[in-house]
Amino acid sequence: MEHSSFKKWSAEFAGTFWLTFGGCGSAVLAAAFPQLGIGFLGVSLAFGLTVLTGAYAFGPISGGHFNPAVSVGLVIGGRFRASQLAGYVAAQVLGAIAAAGVLYMIATGKAGADIGGFATNGFGEHSPGKFGMRAALITEVVLTAVFLIVILGATAKRSAAGFGGMAIGLCLTLIHLVSIPVTNTSVNPARSTGPALFGPAYAMSELWLFWAAPIAGAVLGALIYNVLLKED
User: Fold this and answer.
1) Nearest Cα to Cα of residue 54 among 30, 25, 23
2) Which pTM was predicted?
3) Model pLDDT for residues 106-139, shown as the tens digit of each residue
4) What CA–CA distance (Å, rounded) separates 204 from 166?
5) Taking Cα atoms as reference points, which of 169, 163, 150, 162 lies closest to residue 217?
6) Could you give the residue ranges of the DSSP H alpha helices within 108-132?
7) 40-99 pLDDT, tens per residue?
8) Within 10 A of 79 (CB to CB), how many other CB atoms are there?
9) DSSP codes joined into one string, 42-69
10) 3-state secondary structure of 2
11) How far is residue 25's CA from residue 20's CA, in Å, rounded to a whole number?
């Protein structure tokens, strides 16, 4: 069944809202909660679980991209029409901004609230592990490329039906386990944009990298898949 563009945009908005609110919310509200904080592992699982649950809830309507880089990569991979790209990206960015706005209202809803980095992405002094721009760029390109390869492979016709969302969610969990210390993990320009609008001023000045690197990585991953792994 072919859904209307409005339904697809709505699903992408809702899915990206859930990814940003669930993943970034776990980092802002729960990661360092006194004595019971969930830490890097918990935040990584939260991001993976948002994609896993969102894929099954919204994927049947829109395909479950929730990420401008994924949408671009799927165009390159021949799985998505370029004519639909602008609408998807707009819905994804708006969903992430809405989620960050709701999260900001919650995080500032107590006396003396300090939102800290607000789950924003950064490099150099703003990297959790103080990794420089080159390390951040390589990390985001490589991990987004791998993410696209997994997405294309897990959703191929030859793959086991119904398990794609699980593979993709677990892949995003692993990506976060690797890269939170480097960039606080983007691999998703929309997820980076929402918190940057409400977080510290530096986040907006460094946001360009978290658009350029994931999109470059998505294109690279799709090309690798098409050349080396695509079905005949």
Assistant:
1) 23
2) 0.96
3) 999 988 888 999 999 999 999 999 999 999 999 9
4) 32
5) 150
6) none
7) 999 999 999 999 999 999 999 999 999 999 999 999 999 999 999 999 999 999 999 999
8) 15
9) HHHHHHHHHHHHHHHHHHHHH----SHH
10) coil
11) 7
Q: Which residue has the tokens 């492979």?
A: 153
| Total residues belonging to the chain | 232
Q: How far apart (Å, rounded) are the C-alpha atoms in residues 198 and 108? A: 11
What's the CA gap between 110 and 114, in Å, rounded? 9
Distance CA 215, CA 118 (A): 23
Q: Residue range 185-206: average pLDDT?
A: 97
CB 106 within 8 A of CB 26: no
Both tokens of residue 118? 């607000």
DSSP state of 184: S
